[in-house]
């Protein structure tokens, strides 16, 4: 029996007997990230970065000089996973600031979720020059979209492999770990209480996205279904949808088509100049 099969078996049994208890354990697992060391190909970029410490100990890495582009990685991710995009942006004359989300890297905290990531973006933006763009991958992409609803200001935004609905993420996680119906409901309720925002409100269908945008997803993404990108694009009037034929959930970050599309978005005349 594999580890996952054992976990699902235990959750299936105890989830019927003690749904609230098992839901609490899964909630803690859902919000407690692991920190992974950078890969060898990330090390040169890491060595060339300037480390910044922002308010409340929030950590970030910075490269280049020029208009500022703010990046947010995904769950259990790292700033240097954007290596290819960072190189492209720096060469094109931008300053790149890539955050380490709460409970990731050098940033403080023991738990993480989309609202904490969104608030970290707001804290960072308050200490940086006006943002030419903000870019997020996976949960970082969802946090970018949420932060825009919370008052984050940028001239453009990019969502990469991001979910459109947190409820779908929670349901997939709960089913993957074998939680029975009552435990699934308790898990979702506990996550909602922890985040402090109604889960129904964390759906891009109800968002106001009034800036130019780019939505990127790979059709072979096994973690976040590609139809999520369609939903984001549908809710985002001034966005371009780019579906890559392959790239999975992580490899698309190194796809040159992504970097080219980001530069094309940034080449558009800023909204403040059109006004």
From TrEMBL:
Gene3D superfamilies given in the database record: alpha/beta hydrolase
Domain of life: Bacteria
Pfam family, one: Hydrolase_4
The Serine aminopeptidase S33 domain, residue ranges: 68-166
Name of the protein: Lysophospholipase
Organism: Pseudomonas promysalinigenes
């Amino acid at each position: 029996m594999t580890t996952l099969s054992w976990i699902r078996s235990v959750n299936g049994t105890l989830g019927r007997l003690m749904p609230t208890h098992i839901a609490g354990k899964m909630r803690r697992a859902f919000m407690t990230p692991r920190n992974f060391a950078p890969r060898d190909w990330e090390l040169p970029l890491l060595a060339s970065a300037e480390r910044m410490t922002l308010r409340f100990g929030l950590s970030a890495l910075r490269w280049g000089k020029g208009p500022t582009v703010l990046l947010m990685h995904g769950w259990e991710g790292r700033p240097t996973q954007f290596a290819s995009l960072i190189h492209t942006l720096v060469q094109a004359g931008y300053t790149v600031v890539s955050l380490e989300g709460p409970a990731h890297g050098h940033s403080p905290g023991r738990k993480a979720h989309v609202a904490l990531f969104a608030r970290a973006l707001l804290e960072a933006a308050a200490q940086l020059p006006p943002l030419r763009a903000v870019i997020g991958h996976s949960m970082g992409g969802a946090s970018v979209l949420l932060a825009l609803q919370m008052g984050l200001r940028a001239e453009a935004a990019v969502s990469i492999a991001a979910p459109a609905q947190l409820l779908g993420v929670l349901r997939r996680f709960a089913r993957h770990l074998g939680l029975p119906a009552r435990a699934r409901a308790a898990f979702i309720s506990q996550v909602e209480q922890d985040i402090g925002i109604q889960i129904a409100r964390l759906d891009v269908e109800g968002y106001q996205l009034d800036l130019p945008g780019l939505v990127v997803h790979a059709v072979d993404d096994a973690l976040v279904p590609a139809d999520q990108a369609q939903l984001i694009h549908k809710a985002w009037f001034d966005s371009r949808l780019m579906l890559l034929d392959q790239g999975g959930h992580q490899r698309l970050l190194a796809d040159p088509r992504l970097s080219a599309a980001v530069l094309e978005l940034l080449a558009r005349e800023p909204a403040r100049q059109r006004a």
